[in-house]
Design a protein that fits this description.
- There is one protein chain.
- With 163 residues, this protein is mainly alpha-helical.
- Helix content is 82%, strand content 0%.
- The protein has seven helices and no strands.
- Helix 2 packs parallel to helix 6 and helix 4 runs antiparallel to helix 7.
- It is globular, with a radius of gyration of 17 Å.
Length: 163
Amino acid sequence: MNKANLYKKMNIDNVLEKLKQKLEKGFNLDVELVELCEDFAEELKKLNISQSSIRNIYNSFKSIQLGLQQKFIKLFSESIDDIKKDDAENKAFQMFHPKIRLMKSKANYVLERKKADIKGPEDVKKGYTALKQFIFIFIENINSKKEFDNFMDLFECILGNLK
């Protein structure tokens, strides 16, 4: 049985644990990580998670990503001779890293509020808790602009797989 088939048989808690273990070894965007995020999205879909609440959080992250990209371009263009691309990237990331970390609070607020509004089955609430854990796991492992961009690609993958 290949890894992809193994993940398909796991529940949302198992997928989160696998994601956490993978990220602890380093945040490298590869096929296994993409498959885990696809599996996570499938599990969220089974739990009837609304795309609108996820979209709200995604848009906030996207706003940070755009600001980070603009700052990087500005830093890189202002001192093209004095600063290397990596230095400009690192400096821009350091300026936006606190905003990325603050997204844990925003995600917590939005998702806990959504859970409180749910009158239905506990499984739906479990999905929102899992989404919060997913965001927290990734935020704790984002240490560079490249990793943040990778996270955004994976978050977009989840949104796309929820449709």
